[in-house]
Request: fold
Amino acid sequence: MCRLILTVFLLSLVSCSIDRTIDEVSENESNILINFQKLPSKSVLKIAEENEPGEKLILCLTLIDKESKSNLPNQLVKFYHTSTNGNYEQTDPTDESTARLNGQALTNNKGQIYIETILPGDYGSSNDNRHIHTTVFGAKPEAYDIHFKQYTTYMGRNFSEGSDQHFLADLKKTINNELVTFLTIEVKKPNQANN
Reply:
Protein backbone atom coordinates (compact mmCIF):
# COMPACT_ATOMS: atom_id res chain seq x y z
CA MET A 1 0.00 0.00 0.00
CA CYS A 2 2.82 2.42 0.86
CA ARG A 3 4.43 1.72 -2.54
CA LEU A 4 1.17 2.53 -4.30
CA ILE A 5 0.84 5.81 -2.41
CA LEU A 6 4.47 6.68 -3.11
CA THR A 7 4.05 5.86 -6.81
CA VAL A 8 0.93 8.01 -7.09
CA PHE A 9 2.69 10.85 -5.28
CA LEU A 10 5.73 10.68 -7.56
CA LEU A 11 3.55 10.57 -10.66
CA SER A 12 1.66 13.64 -9.46
CA LEU A 13 4.95 15.50 -9.04
CA VAL A 14 6.01 14.59 -12.56
CA SER A 15 2.69 15.73 -14.02
CA CYS A 16 2.96 19.07 -12.16
CA SER A 17 6.57 19.77 -13.09
CA ILE A 18 7.44 22.37 -15.66
CA ASP A 19 8.65 21.21 -19.05
CA ARG A 20 11.46 23.68 -19.77
CA THR A 21 12.14 22.26 -23.25
CA ILE A 22 12.64 25.03 -25.79
CA ASP A 23 12.50 23.78 -29.38
CA GLU A 24 14.21 25.41 -32.33
CA VAL A 25 12.06 27.42 -34.70
CA SER A 26 10.78 25.59 -37.74
CA GLU A 27 11.54 26.78 -41.26
CA ASN A 28 8.03 28.24 -41.45
CA GLU A 29 8.52 30.08 -38.14
CA SER A 30 11.88 31.42 -39.38
CA ASN A 31 10.09 32.89 -42.40
CA ILE A 32 7.39 34.40 -40.16
CA LEU A 33 10.12 35.95 -37.98
CA ILE A 34 11.79 37.48 -41.06
CA ASN A 35 8.44 39.05 -42.08
CA PHE A 36 7.92 40.49 -38.58
CA GLN A 37 11.43 41.98 -38.66
CA LYS A 38 10.36 43.93 -41.79
CA LEU A 39 7.42 45.67 -40.09
CA PRO A 40 7.26 49.48 -40.35
CA SER A 41 9.06 51.36 -37.56
CA LYS A 42 5.78 52.32 -35.84
CA SER A 43 5.19 48.60 -35.22
CA VAL A 44 8.69 47.77 -33.96
CA LEU A 45 9.58 48.20 -30.30
CA LYS A 46 12.97 47.77 -28.68
CA ILE A 47 12.41 47.66 -24.91
CA ALA A 48 15.85 46.40 -23.83
CA GLU A 49 19.15 47.75 -25.10
CA GLU A 50 21.89 45.37 -26.31
CA ASN A 51 23.81 45.68 -23.02
CA GLU A 52 20.77 44.83 -20.85
CA PRO A 53 21.55 41.78 -18.67
CA GLY A 54 19.38 38.78 -19.43
CA GLU A 55 18.41 36.44 -22.22
CA LYS A 56 17.30 38.19 -25.41
CA LEU A 57 13.62 37.69 -26.22
CA ILE A 58 11.76 38.47 -29.44
CA LEU A 59 7.97 38.68 -29.47
CA CYS A 60 6.04 38.42 -32.74
CA LEU A 61 2.53 39.47 -31.73
CA THR A 62 -0.75 39.71 -33.60
CA LEU A 63 -3.70 41.46 -32.00
CA ILE A 64 -7.19 40.51 -33.08
CA ASP A 65 -10.73 41.34 -31.99
CA LYS A 66 -11.88 38.46 -29.74
CA GLU A 67 -15.42 38.44 -31.18
CA SER A 68 -14.92 39.08 -34.89
CA LYS A 69 -11.40 37.55 -35.13
CA SER A 70 -10.42 40.49 -37.37
CA ASN A 71 -6.98 42.11 -37.11
CA LEU A 72 -6.57 45.29 -35.05
CA PRO A 73 -4.68 47.80 -37.22
CA ASN A 74 -3.20 51.01 -35.75
CA GLN A 75 -3.85 49.84 -32.19
CA LEU A 76 -1.69 51.55 -29.56
CA VAL A 77 -0.23 48.99 -27.13
CA LYS A 78 2.08 49.42 -24.13
CA PHE A 79 4.35 46.71 -22.74
CA TYR A 80 6.32 46.57 -19.48
CA HIS A 81 8.07 43.94 -17.39
CA THR A 82 10.72 43.22 -14.77
CA SER A 83 14.47 43.10 -15.26
CA THR A 84 16.22 39.74 -15.32
CA ASN A 85 16.53 40.12 -11.52
CA GLY A 86 12.75 40.40 -11.13
CA ASN A 87 12.64 44.13 -10.37
CA TYR A 88 10.32 46.60 -12.07
CA GLU A 89 12.54 49.55 -11.14
CA GLN A 90 9.59 51.85 -11.78
CA THR A 91 9.95 55.64 -11.81
CA ASP A 92 6.73 55.95 -9.78
CA PRO A 93 6.93 53.53 -6.82
CA THR A 94 3.13 53.18 -6.79
CA ASP A 95 2.78 52.37 -10.51
CA GLU A 96 4.32 49.22 -12.04
CA SER A 97 3.53 50.50 -15.55
CA THR A 98 6.38 53.00 -15.11
CA ALA A 99 8.84 50.08 -15.07
CA ARG A 100 12.26 50.84 -16.49
CA LEU A 101 11.73 48.20 -19.18
CA ASN A 102 8.69 49.54 -21.01
CA GLY A 103 7.56 50.95 -24.31
CA GLN A 104 4.68 51.27 -26.70
CA ALA A 105 4.01 50.75 -30.38
CA LEU A 106 1.21 50.79 -32.93
CA THR A 107 0.12 47.63 -34.70
CA ASN A 108 0.54 47.53 -38.47
CA ASN A 109 -2.41 47.04 -40.85
CA LYS A 110 -2.44 43.29 -39.95
CA GLY A 111 -2.49 43.92 -36.18
CA GLN A 112 1.18 42.93 -35.79
CA ILE A 113 3.93 44.21 -33.49
CA TYR A 114 7.58 43.09 -33.31
CA ILE A 115 9.34 43.49 -29.94
CA GLU A 116 12.95 42.97 -28.84
CA THR A 117 13.53 42.76 -25.09
CA ILE A 118 14.80 40.28 -22.51
CA LEU A 119 13.09 37.41 -20.74
CA PRO A 120 11.66 38.95 -17.55
CA GLY A 121 12.82 37.58 -14.23
CA ASP A 122 10.66 36.11 -11.49
CA TYR A 123 9.59 38.66 -8.95
CA GLY A 124 8.58 38.58 -5.32
CA SER A 125 8.74 35.33 -3.41
CA SER A 126 7.26 33.26 -6.25
CA ASN A 127 9.18 31.25 -8.79
CA ASP A 128 8.10 30.75 -12.37
CA ASN A 129 5.88 33.80 -12.65
CA ARG A 130 7.65 35.56 -15.51
CA HIS A 131 5.32 37.64 -17.62
CA ILE A 132 4.96 40.82 -19.67
CA HIS A 133 2.18 43.27 -18.95
CA THR A 134 0.30 44.47 -22.01
CA THR A 135 -2.02 47.47 -22.12
CA VAL A 136 -4.28 47.73 -25.17
CA PHE A 137 -5.43 51.35 -25.07
CA GLY A 138 -9.17 51.85 -25.49
CA ALA A 139 -10.07 48.16 -25.11
CA LYS A 140 -12.41 46.95 -22.38
CA PRO A 141 -10.51 45.66 -20.45
CA GLU A 142 -7.16 47.20 -21.37
CA ALA A 143 -4.92 44.83 -19.36
CA TYR A 144 -3.56 41.57 -20.81
CA ASP A 145 -0.55 39.51 -19.69
CA ILE A 146 1.85 37.32 -21.64
CA HIS A 147 3.14 34.33 -19.64
CA PHE A 148 5.73 31.81 -20.83
CA LYS A 149 4.93 28.11 -20.97
CA GLN A 150 8.45 27.07 -19.98
CA TYR A 151 8.37 29.36 -16.92
CA THR A 152 4.84 28.86 -15.67
CA THR A 153 3.77 26.33 -13.04
CA TYR A 154 0.94 23.86 -13.51
CA MET A 155 -1.39 26.10 -11.51
CA GLY A 156 -0.27 29.14 -13.51
CA ARG A 157 -0.95 27.32 -16.78
CA ASN A 158 -4.43 26.38 -15.60
CA PHE A 159 -5.03 29.99 -14.56
CA SER A 160 -3.84 31.32 -17.93
CA GLU A 161 -5.85 28.80 -19.92
CA GLY A 162 -8.98 29.71 -17.94
CA SER A 163 -8.57 33.46 -18.48
CA ASP A 164 -9.19 35.55 -21.56
CA GLN A 165 -6.73 38.22 -20.38
CA HIS A 166 -3.70 35.96 -19.83
CA PHE A 167 -1.91 34.32 -22.74
CA LEU A 168 0.58 31.46 -22.60
CA ALA A 169 3.46 31.87 -25.05
CA ASP A 170 5.58 28.93 -26.19
CA LEU A 171 9.24 29.94 -26.35
CA LYS A 172 11.41 28.80 -29.27
CA LYS A 173 15.11 29.27 -30.09
CA THR A 174 16.32 30.97 -33.25
CA ILE A 175 19.39 29.84 -35.16
CA ASN A 176 21.17 32.72 -33.35
CA ASN A 177 20.19 31.12 -30.02
CA GLU A 178 17.71 33.91 -29.16
CA LEU A 179 14.34 33.25 -27.58
CA VAL A 180 11.32 33.99 -29.77
CA THR A 181 7.59 33.53 -29.45
CA PHE A 182 4.70 33.89 -31.86
CA LEU A 183 1.45 34.81 -30.16
CA THR A 184 -2.03 36.02 -31.06
CA ILE A 185 -3.71 38.15 -28.42
CA GLU A 186 -7.50 38.22 -28.56
CA VAL A 187 -8.63 41.65 -27.37
CA LYS A 188 -12.06 42.14 -25.84
CA LYS A 189 -14.07 45.16 -26.99
CA PRO A 190 -11.24 47.05 -28.75
CA ASN A 191 -11.64 50.74 -29.45
CA GLN A 192 -12.97 50.59 -33.01
CA ALA A 193 -12.14 54.27 -33.55
CA ASN A 194 -8.47 53.24 -33.94
CA ASN A 195 -9.24 50.67 -36.62
The radius of gyration is 18 Å. The chain has a mean pLDDT of 89. The chain has one domain: 32-194.
